[in-house]
Recover the amino acids of this structure.
C-alpha cells in the first residue's frame, strides 16, 4: 500500500508557503527557521565525499538505512541553503526506500521554488533531490543483492 | 582625483533618466548597488538603440546607399567621441571591441603572440580580474613566457617599489587594473607606465571600472593600451573600446580575419586594412557602438568631476554607516579608491546576506567577483560588494546599512 506520508508533508509545506503569500523576507525567515531545526550533523560526516555536487554553497548530505527506511543527515555553510536541505529532509526523512525513489516532489513546482530562490539555487536544490534519490537507489540495490 | 565637495547635482532628476530604477523588486523599491558589474542605462542610450534599428540600420563602411552612409557616419562619430573621451592623439587609435575582456585578448593574441619569446615575463598585480589574468596565462603558456604578480597589502594597495623590483629586463608586458572591481583601489598606472617604459616593456591598462569613475587621459597616463567596456559606463553590453598607440598597433598582426579588416584578398596573399579596421573583423555591434556615444555624452553633460565627487561622498558615507554593522570586515581601504565597498560579516555567509538584501529590494554582488586569487590572498571565499553610481543616494545607503543591521540581528 502506498505511503502517503510524503505527500501529506508536501501538502503541509505548500499550505505554509501559500500563507507566506510570496513575501520573500518571510519565506527566507521560514527557511532559516527550518534550517535551525535540522539536527546537528557530526563534523566527521562533513567530508568531501558527502558534498552534494552542483550546489553553489557547500551542502553535506548522508543517508543511513534501517529496516527499509532512510534516515538523512545534512548541513550547509549558508543558512538559507541549510533551510532548503532541511525542507527536503523534513519531507523524506524516515521514508521507505521505494517511496523516496518514486516520490513525485510536486511541492517544488507548487511553491514556485524557481521564482523565489533563482535559477542557480534551484539547480542546486535539484542536485540535492538527485542525491537523495541516488542514495535510495544505492540502498535498494544493496538490499536486493543481500536478499 | 577631485577633492571637490559633493556638488549640487539634482540626483532625483538624474534618476528619471534611468527608467529601470522606477520598479519594485520583491515588492520593495529597487536599490541598485551592483554598478561595478554593470551600470544601468539612461533613456538617451536606450532610445539611441531603437532609433538606429527604426531609422538607419545598415551595414557600415561598404555600402553606397544612404542608410549605409548614415550608419557609417554614426559609427565613426562614436569613435571620434571616444577619442576625445580618453584623449587619444588620433582617432585611428580607437578600436571597437566587445568589451575589456575582448580588448585584453586582442592584445595578448595580436601583440603577445608576435613579440613574446621564451623566458619573457608579463607582470600583473594580485588584484586583477580574471580577464586580466587568463588571456596572459594562455599566451604565456604558448610562448614559454612567465606571469609575475605584484602583491597587495592589507589595505588592498600595491607598492611602486614592488613594481619596480619586479620589472626586469625580461619583462615585455605590464598589465594593471586602473580601478579594482573587488576592492575599489585606484592604482598609480601613470607611475607604473614610467617604470615599465624604463625597461622597454609596454603598459596595458585594464580600464573596465575606471572609465566612468576616473579621469581617463591615455596620453597623460602614457599607457600603450587602454581597454574598457561600454556597459560599466552607462552604455550597452557587448561593446567597448581598446586604445592602442599607433606605432604599436601598426606593428601588430591581426588575430581575427574576416570581412572589413582587409585591403585585398586573393588565394595567394591577403593584405590587411589600416588601423583601426584591421582589428575590427566582421560586422561590428553597430547599434550598441552608436548608442555608446550617448553614454559618453551623458557623462560629459553631468561632468565627470561632479560624478566622481558624488560617488566619493556616497562611498565615504557608506564606510561610515556600515562601520555600525556588528562583525563587519572591510576589504579594500586604499587611500585612492572608486565607489566600491567590499566586506564580509562575521558568521553571515555572503550568499545569505545577498539573498536577504534582495528580499529588501537591494541588489548587491556576492562571491569572488572574478578575482579568485585576490580572495585566496585574503583567505576568504568571497565578499559582499556594494558599488555606487551617479544615481544612488545617501538615503539608499542609510536603508542599506539599517537592513544589514537587521540581517545581522537574525544571525545572533
Amino acid at each position: 500500500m502506498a505511503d502517503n506520508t510524503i505527500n501529506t508533508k508536501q501538502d503541509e509545506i505548500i499550505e505554509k508557503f501559500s500563507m507566506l503569500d510570496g513575501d520573500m523576507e518571510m519565506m527566507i525567515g521560514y527557511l532559516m527557521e527550518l534550517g535551525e531545526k535540522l539536527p546537528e550533523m557530526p563534523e566527521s560526516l562533513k567530508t568531501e565525499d558527502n558534498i552534494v555536487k552542483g550546489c553553489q554553497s557547500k551542502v553535506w548530505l548522508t543517508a543511513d538505512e534501517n529496516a527499509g527506511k532512510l534516515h538523512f543527515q545534512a548541513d550547509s555553510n549558508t543558512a538559507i541553503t541549510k533551510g532548503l536541505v532541511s525542507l527536503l529532509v523534513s519531507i523524506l526523512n524516515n521514508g521507505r526506500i521505494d517511496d523516496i525513489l518514486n516520490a513525485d516532489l510536486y511541492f517544488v513546482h507548487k511553491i514556485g521554488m524557481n521564482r523565489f530562490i533563482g535559477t542557480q539555487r534551484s539547480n542546486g536544490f535539484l542536485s540535492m533531490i538527485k542525491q537523495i534519490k541516488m542514495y535510495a537507489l544505492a540502498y535498494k540495490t544493496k538490499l536486493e543483492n543481500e536478499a | 582625483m577631485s577633492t571637490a565637495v559633493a556638488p549640487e547635482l539634482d540626483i532625483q532628476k538624474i534618476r528619471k533618466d534611468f527608467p529601470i530604477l522606477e520598479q519594485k523588486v520583491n515588492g520593495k523599491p529597487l536599490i541598485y548597488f551592483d554598478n561595478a558589474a554593470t551600470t544601468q542605462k539612461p533613456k538617451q542610450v536606450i532610445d539611441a538603440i531603437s532609433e538606429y534599428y527604426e531609422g538607419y540600420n545598415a551595414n557600415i563602411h561598404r555600402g553606397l546607399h544612404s542608410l549605409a552612409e548614415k550608419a557609417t557616419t554614426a559609427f565613426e562619430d562614436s569613435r571620434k567621441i571616444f577619442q576625445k573621451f580618453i584623449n587619444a592623439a588620433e582617432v585611428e587609435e580607437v578600436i571597437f571591441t566587445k568589451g575589456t575582456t575582448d580588448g585584453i585578448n586582442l592584445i595578448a593574441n595580436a601583440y603577445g603572440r608576435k613579440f613574446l619569446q621564451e623566458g619573457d615575463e608579463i607582470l600583473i598585480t594580485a588584484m586583477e580580474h580574471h580577464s586580466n589574468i587568463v588571456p596572459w596565462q594562455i599566451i604565456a603558456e604558448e610562448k614559454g613566457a612567465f606571469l609575475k604578480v605584484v602583491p597587495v597589502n592589507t589595505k588592498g594597495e600595491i607598492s611602486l617599489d614592488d613594481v619596480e623590483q619586479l620589472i626586469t629586463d625580461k619583462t615585455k608586458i605590464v598589465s594593471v587594473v586602473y580601478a579594482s572591481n573587488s576592492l575599489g583601489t585606484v592604482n598609480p598606472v601613470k607611475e607604473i607606465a614610467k617604470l615599465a617604459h624604463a625597461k622597454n616593456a609596454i603598459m596595458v591598462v585594464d580600464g573596465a571600472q575606471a572609465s566612468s569613475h576616473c579621469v581617463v587621459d591615455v596620453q597623460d597616463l602614457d599607457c600603450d593600451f587602454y581597454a574598457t567596456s561600454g556597459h560599466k559606463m552607462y552604455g550597452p553590453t557587448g561593446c567597448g573600446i581598446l586604445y592602442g598607440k599607433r606605432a604599436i598597433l601598426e606593428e601588430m598582426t591581426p588575430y581575427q580575419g574576416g570581412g572589413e579588416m582587409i585591403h585585398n584578398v586573393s588565394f595567394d596573399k591577403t593584405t590587411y586594412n589600416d588601423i583601426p579596421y584591421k582589428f575590427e573583423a566582421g560586422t561590428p555591434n553597430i547599434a550598441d557602438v552608436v548608442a555608446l556615444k550617448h553614454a559618453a555624452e551623458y557623462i560629459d553633460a553631468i561632468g565627470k568631476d561632479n560624478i566622481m565627487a558624488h560617488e566619493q561622498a556616497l562611498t565615504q558615507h557608506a564606510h561610515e554607516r556600515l562601520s555600525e554593522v556588528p562583525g563587519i570586515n572591510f576589504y579594500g581601504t586604499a587611500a585612492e579608491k572608486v565607489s566600491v565597498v567590499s566586506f564580509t560579516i562575521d558568521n553571515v555567509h555572503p550568499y545569505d546576506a545577498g539573498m536577504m538584501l534582495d528580499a529588501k529590494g537591494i541588489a548587491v554582488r556576492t562571491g569572488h567577483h572574478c578575482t579568485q586569487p585576490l580572495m585566496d590572498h585574503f583567505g576568504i571565499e568571497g565578499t559582499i560588494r556594494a558599488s555606487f553610481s551617479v544615481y544612488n543616494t545617501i538615503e539608499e545607503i542609510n536603508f542599506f546599512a539599517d537592513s544589514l543591521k537587521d540581517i545581522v540581528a537574525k544571525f545572533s
User: Anything to note?
Assistant: Strands of chain A lie at 59-66, 69-76, 95-96. Chain A touches chain B through 15 residues (CB under 8 Å). The radius of gyration of chain A is 15 Å.
